[in-house]
Design brief:
The longest helix is centred in the first third of the chain and has 15 residues, at 71-85. The N and C termini lie far apart (57 Å). This protein has 10 helices and 14 strands. Helix 2 packs across helix 3 (29-41), helix 5 crosses helix 6 and helix 6 packs parallel to helix 7. The protein is an alpha/beta fold and 258 residues long. A hairpin with a 2-residue loop joins strand 9 and strand 10. The radius of gyration is 19 Å and the shape is globular. Strands 5-4-3-8-11-13-14 form a 7-stranded parallel sheet, sandwiched between helices. It has helices at 2-12, 18-25, 29-41, 63-66, 71-85, 97-107, 120-126, 151-157, 182-192, 232-241; strands at residues 45-48, 51-54, 90-93, 113-117, 132-136, 140-142, 147-149, 162-167, 171-173, 176-179, 195-201, 213-216, 222-225, 244-246. It holds the Pfam family HTH_DeoR. Keywords: DNA-binding, Repressor, Transcription, Transcription regulation. Residues 1-54 form the HTH deoR-type domain. InterPro entries: Carb_Metab_HTH_regulators (IPR050313), DeoR-like_C (IPR014036), DeoR_HTH (IPR001034), NagB/RpiA_transferase-like (IPR037171), Tscrpt_reg_HTH_DeoR_CS (IPR018356), WH-like_DNA-bd_sf (IPR036388), WH_DNA-bd_sf (IPR036390). This is DeoR/GlpR family DNA-binding transcription regulator.
Length: 258
């Protein structure tokens, strides 16, 4: 019964700490730690420093399921991103459904370039083009998203500098860009630090959402390629920070007038 309550609490708030769970369930922190260890052993959650993340608490479907969602919007975003940033000689690319669509569009370009990525599907797509040199990063393989993560991945990323880093996102809010998966979020945070320019590819369904790991706040080095103009606090924060908004079919349109 207590295990079910812990999982329900983490589903509602994935950032809960051990002491918060103990207070909420009115038991000791030692009891919560034992429960978390048992749930971790049977694969119901993943332990983190000071707490845990429910295995079902990723705020979005798996990669294979997401590929069937917002297909037209994702394709338009990908083609726009290739038009605007596809001439870069060195790219660092994240993974995910929108990024896979971007990789398929980039694959058909005729320019020599180097791509660094932790995402196996991205590497496979781009390797079909002999003009694209693909560097697949080392690390621990995450089978659901098919990306690598861990200390070796971060150390490898720190060796490189690229013109542009391009990622997808689980959430876009006034606070910034966020990722639903903890381990992947750590890699994308490091990935953003390797590039002079950061480009985020995300459709309007991510607006107003805050996922588990905050990757970055908005700044003038970030461009968002999306299918619809953001509104409310998200738009105002991006405009004040100088972040660029790029829409399909109107590649010159952005929030900063650049």
């Amino acid at each position: 019964m207590r295990h079910a309550r812990i999982l329900a609490a983490l589903e509602a708030n994935p950032t809960l700490r051990v002491n918060q769970l103990a207070d909420q369930l009115e038991v000791s922190t030692e009891t919560i730690r034992r429960d978390l260890a048992e749930l971790d052993q049977i694969g119901r959650l993943s332990r983190t420093y000071g707490g845990a993340v429910s295995a079902g608490s990723r705020f979005e479907p798996a990669l294979t399921e997401r590929l069937a969602l917002h297909v037209a919007e994702r394709r338009a975003i990908a083609e726009t991103a290739v038009d605007r940033f596809g001439d870069s000689e060195t790219l660092v690319l994240g993974g995910g459904a929108t990024m896979l669509t971007f990789a398929r569009a980039l694959r058909d370009t005729q320019q020599r370039r180097t791509v660094i990525t932790p995402a196996y599907p991205i590497a496979v797509e781009l390797s079909a083009n002999p003009l694209i040199e693909v560097m697949l990063l080392p690390g621990i393989f995450e089978p659901q998203e098919r990306v690598v993560y861990g200390p070796e991945t971060i150390r490898a990323l720190e060796r490189y500098r690229a013109e542009v880093a391009i990622i997808g996102a689980s959430g876009l809010a006034a606070a910034g860009i966020s990722e639903a998966m903890l381990q992947v979020g750590e890699i994308y945070g490091a990935l953003l630090r390797t590039a002079e320019r950061v480009v985020v590819l995300a459709d309007h369904s991510k607006f107003g959402k805050r996922a588990l790991t905050l990757l970055s706040s908005w700044s003038n080095r970030i461009s968002l390629v999306t299918d619809r103009m953001p509104e409310g606090d998200l738009y105002l924060t991006m405009r004040e920070a100088g972040a660029q908004i790029i829409l399909p079919d109107n590649s010159g349109s952005d929030s900063t007038g650049r």
